[in-house]
Request: fold
Amino acid sequence: MGETVVVTDAWGWLTTGAHWTGEEGIGQRLAEHVYVSGAALLIAAALALPLGLWLGHLGRGGALAVNVSNVGRAIPVFAVLALFMVSPLRNAGYVPTVVALVLFAIPPLLTNAYVGMREVDRAAVRAARGMGMTGGQLFRQVELPLARPVVMTGVRSAAVQVVATATVAAMVGQGGLGRIITAGFATYDTARVVAGAVLVALLALLVEGVLVGVDRLIGRRAGPKRAGPKRAGPKRAEPRRARPIKS
Reply:
């Protein structure tokens, strides 16, 4: 019964129109959360993806990718954010939060980009080279399309983790949906705490769904390009076709 009452109260809190407006409303907090999470993810992707893809293309730097990933996972985001808030960055708006989340998002992006490139079928790579593809063409038309599923898995993982972790910004007085949760704790309002947690979970699920859709869209558009290296198979198999002539 107690759980049912909490869920009912949380639903009532979420469906109250007054809670969606104003500077402390859900709309404002949601916009702040999306802004911080999106900025952190874009910056982390701009830093980690090119490096991971390049190292994977060269076949070098595996130890660097793994070590950076391990170190990044060991960094407590809240501790980093707390340190930033006692530094000169404390007056730089959302910069401390974004930087802390960037450090948190880089490991899955870098690792998956590298692993995705290294797991590309070597036979497809050799066939593409045999067709006379340059290094750039091989990267764009063969390796990158084939590595896309693993790379996008890293992007989705980083995005969901960033959205969920961005709630810690409220612990140092920053904005986002975490402010709803901390305000609920401060006033012993369990319904508000649960409502805030539900909003964060729904946003993470929405981001996951959008990225899955983007991945599928890219996959459909990249399909014809991936077919290129596969057409190299019949060329290498031509001696088999010549058998009837020899007989």
